[in-house]
């Protein structure tokens, strides 16, 4: 299959781009599109065979449910039941935006593979003009995980999607770099207090201002992960990633140590390390693109500098912990 990329934002034939994408989705194909977080790999969420193509293209385990994208709160309401006041407050405060709400799905609405057989569904309204226009014209909910090969960093550029999905899907809508760079916050509204299953740009504090106390699933000890996706390897470049405390002297020593073994090292951090073979700044916007670049360069080990007591960047810390499989450099 040939994979076509259409640049949407600077395209004079924008209308035609959307109608092509809408036609493909309606006929059961998979189309990649930009959102404000990362690129998504979309199929009509009520079409079992179309959704199955997403799992195949990504190599995604079938017990990991997908996020459903809709164009508005009103549309979302048609697909979920038992909506609490808190859930509605979150929709009003954060949609369109990078907050996925886990709600009870209306029975027999979504294809079974979207929810991986659960009675709940993750749903959000993306804050991106291309995604919103596509959903408005399609008039159907779109199931879309991040558009990467399973286990790899999520795509923040159409090139990343093309790299992973070339010859596997017919169309990529190119809307440029995604603004946020990491996936949405996932908030489970089916428990009390509501629980953050995946941290993201929308923070615990911002949510608590709207609905009062919420919990972080990582703080609930001894619980099996409730978000099925959290148990799989994620965001992993080919070279091993190790976490290291953000301490200039410690990092310099680690670089020397790796060099003494005749190996090359890349450092991701808020500071410059000119002695490292490669040196990437660390931010949500650039994280996945830097991890992907590590696959293009000659590097044996990647050090990701984190400050273990910094509460601010828990979303980035969460992604780095997964990329490193929680290994610390020692
Ligand atoms: O920003 C995003 O959320 C992107 C863009 C494309 O919207 N999408 C995304 O989808 O990151 P994905 O499939 O890569 O991640 C979905 C996460 C997984 O961790 C999955 O386990 C969880 O949401 N999830 C989905 N439905 C769920 C449910 N019913 N209950 C618990 N967790 C759920
Ligand atoms: Mg993903």
Plain-language structure description:
The protein has helices at residues 14-26, 48-58, 73-77, 85-94, 129-138, 158-165, 204-211, 248-260, 284-293, 314-323, and strands at residues 4-7, 31-33, 40-44, 67-69, 80-81, 99-105, 120-124, 142-143, 171-174, 185-188, 195-198, 215-216, 241-245, 265-269, 278-281, 301-306. It is an alpha/beta fold and 330 residues long. The structure holds threonylcarbamoyladenylate (TXA) and magnesium ion (MG).
Please describe the topology of this protein:
Blueprint: E1 4-7, H1 14-26, E2 31-33, E3 40-44, H2 48-58, E4 67-69, H3 73-77, E5 80-81, H4 85-94, E6 99-105, E7 120-124, H5 129-138, E8 142-143, H6 158-165, E9 171-174, E10 185-188, E11 195-198, H7 204-211, E12 215-216, E13 241-245, H8 248-260, E14 265-269, E15 278-281, H9 284-293, E16 301-306, H10 314-323
Parallel strand pairs: 1-9, 2-9, 4-7, 6-10, 11-12, 13-16, 14-15, 14-16
Antiparallel strand pairs: 2-3, 3-8, 4-8, 5-6, 6-7, 10-11
Helix pairs in contact: 1-5
The protein binds threonylcarbamoyladenylate and magnesium ion.
Magnesium ion binds next to loops.
List keywords for this structure.
16 strands, single chain, four-stranded parallel sheet, globular, twelve-stranded mixed sheet, 330 residues, alpha/beta, binds magnesium ion, binds threonylcarbamoyladenylate
Percent helix, as a range, is: 25-40%
* SS elements, strand count: 16
Bound molecules: threonylcarbamoyladenylate, magnesium ion
Overall pLDDT: 94
Radius of gyration: 20 Å
Q: Beta-sheet strand percentage? A: 15-25%
The helix-and-strand class reads alpha/beta
List low-pLDDT spans: none
